[in-house]
């Protein structure tokens, strides 16, 4: 399988601080890759360099083998690389169905004048969008709340609606920004299932998470960063046993105690 997304020696500084330094890793099509690191490790900065918010000072970002370093966020989204947000951004006055359908519209191929004229192309497209929306709601177990006002639902369900809306844009790769943040244990367990289900639909996943346990349970491949540099990479078991990872997460003294 080929790399969908690849970072080659990517780095950026803020003032004198090297926030991300010479970072390389790739995300293969069909994989769930976890990017983890303690607070301040540089995860958000990596995220922002992939999605076009920041331009890396060094290195290259490749999408399906082509360089996208420094491309604008809208172009990157159009290529099929979409992100979720930690904060809920649902339209409060709209139903779950309408919120998810709004995500479909971002990916619609329709020209504005087709909409104005009510041409057959537009009607066909609308029927396709409605069908796609229903399918996503069904897969994410949201069909029972399709007509509910989105923001009336429990927090964990609202997070799932956000995911559904992002999927409606038909991404090839989805970057999840700390999807477990604020979830209770039951919601967190349900999230694992949702992540596997998303992968089953053919969407590749980059999971950016602070919580090591969530990442370890679902990822095929884990990349660990600390102080902006990659300190370990491999499958969950390998990474979990890596002394550098234990030290980064627990601190040197605790890590020595664990080792003893
Ligand atoms: N725009 C900025 N200007 C200055 N410094 C920044 C900026 N963005 C990030 N940094 C610094 O870069 C380092 C990496 O920050 P980043 O937010 O990427 O870490 P993180 O791993 O996402 O942390 P957290 O888990 O706490 O969100 C930190 O020291 C942070 O203070």
UniProtKB/TrEMBL annotation:
Keyword tags: ATP-binding, Nucleotide-binding, Transport
Keyword Nucleotide-binding: yes
Gene Ontology biological process terms from the UniProt entry: D-alanine transmembrane transport; L-alanine transport; L-isoleucine import across plasma membrane; L-valine import across plasma membrane
Presence of keyword Transport: yes
Gene3D superfamilies (alphabetical): P-loop containing nucleotide triphosphate hydrolases
A GO molecular-function descriptor: ATP binding
SMART domains noted in UniProt: AAA (SM00382)
UniProt domain ABC transporter: residue ranges: 5-252
One cellular-component annotation, GO: plasma membrane
Pfam families recorded: ABC_tran, BCA_ABC_TP_C
PANTHER family according to UniProt: AMINO ACID ABC TRANSPORTER ATP-BINDING PROTEIN (PTHR45772:SF7), CONSERVED COMPONENT OF ABC TRANSPORTER FOR NATURAL AMINO ACIDS-RELATED (PTHR45772)
Record-given protein name: ABC transporter ATP-binding protein
Taxonomic source organism: Acidiphilium acidophilum
């Amino acid at each position: 399988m080929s790399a969908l997304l690849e970072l080659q020696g990517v780095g950026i500084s803020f003032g004198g601080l090297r926030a991300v330094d010479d970072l390389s890793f790739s995300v293969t099509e069909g994989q769930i890759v976890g990017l983890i690191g303690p607070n301040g490790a540089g995860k958000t900065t990596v995220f922002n360099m992939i999605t076009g918010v920041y331009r890396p000072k060094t290195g290259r970002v490749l999408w399906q083998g082509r360089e996208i370093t420094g491309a604008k966020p809208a172009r990157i989204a159009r290529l099929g690389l979409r992100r979720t947000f930690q904060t809920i951004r649902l339209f409060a006055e709209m139903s779950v169905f309408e919120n998810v359908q709004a995500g479909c519209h971002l990916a619609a191929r329709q020209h504005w004048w087709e909409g104005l004229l009510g041409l057959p192309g537009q009607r066909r497209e609308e029927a396709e969008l409605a069908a796609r929306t229903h399918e996503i709601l069904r897969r994410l177990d949201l069909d029972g709340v399709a007509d509910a006002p989105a923001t009336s639902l429990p927090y964990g369900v609202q997070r799932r609606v956000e995911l559904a809306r992002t999927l409606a844009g038909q991404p090839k790769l989805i970057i999840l920004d700390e999807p477990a943040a604020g979830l209770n244990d039951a919601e967190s367990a349900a999230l694992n299932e949702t992540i596997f289900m998303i992968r089953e639909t053919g969407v590749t996943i980059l999971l950016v998470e602070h919580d090591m346990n969530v990442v370890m349970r679902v990822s095929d491949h884990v990349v660990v960063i600390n102080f902006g540099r990659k300190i370990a990479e491999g499958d969950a078991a390998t990474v979990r046993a890596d002394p550098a990872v234990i030290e980064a997460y627990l601190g040197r003294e605790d890590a020595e105690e664990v080792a003893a």
